[in-house]
Prior knowledge:
Number of domains: 1
CATH topology: Nucleoside Triphosphate Pyrophosphohydrolase
Shape: globular
Strand content: 25-35%
Structural class: alpha+beta
Number of helices: 2
Helix content: 10-25%
Largest sheet: 4 strands, mixed
Bound molecules: 8-OXO-2'-deoxyguanosine-5'-triphosphate
Order of helices and strands: EEEEHEEEH
Oligomer: single chain
Mean pLDDT: 96
CATH architecture: Alpha-Beta Complex
Distance between the termini: 42 Å
Number of strands: 7
Low-confidence stretches: none
Amino acid sequence: MSQILTGKRLLLVAACALVDTDGRVLLAQRPEGKQLAGLWEFPGGKVEPGETPEQCLIRELQEEIGIETDIPCLAPLTFASHSYDDFHLLMPLFVCRRFRGIAQPKEGQALKWVRPKQMRDYPMPPADAPLIQFLIDLL
Ligand SMILES: Nc1nc2c([nH]c(=O)n2[C@H]2C[C@H](O)[C@@H](COP(=O)(O)OP(=O)(O)OP(=O)(O)O)O2)c(=O)[nH]1
């Protein structure tokens, strides 16, 4: 039995593929000093107690990049389930095509609109690699 239990805590992170009218997806580069620094990720973050993943994303998109959206504009696409050394990440990935504002790096991160077929040129966290094909197929 113990062989199938990792003993790691499960961390719920909500992530969003914001899609522009050209079919490009916004990636953000994790700032220096953070875990996985320098890697390109989908905007999002940890779901706080009492929040739904959708509410978390609305908060994170506003805080991180100054983008506003609404719950009906967040469509579930797929999820990542990946073990890091100290936790197991469960990360639903939503797609959002309807949003307000112009993405601005509010936390010092670099931002880039990237076509899904080019995403493999941007080093991403290991949990994200399996998600790219879903975006290629969708867009
Ligand atoms: N937002 C986001 N996080 C991701 C992705 N892929 C991936 O492995 N993660 C991981 C990195 C972090 O361990 C966790 C997200 O946490 P976070 O961004 O809210 O927190 P953080 O590590 O910056 O730490 P904190 O200072 O905010 O507490 O999920 C992704 O595509 N987007």
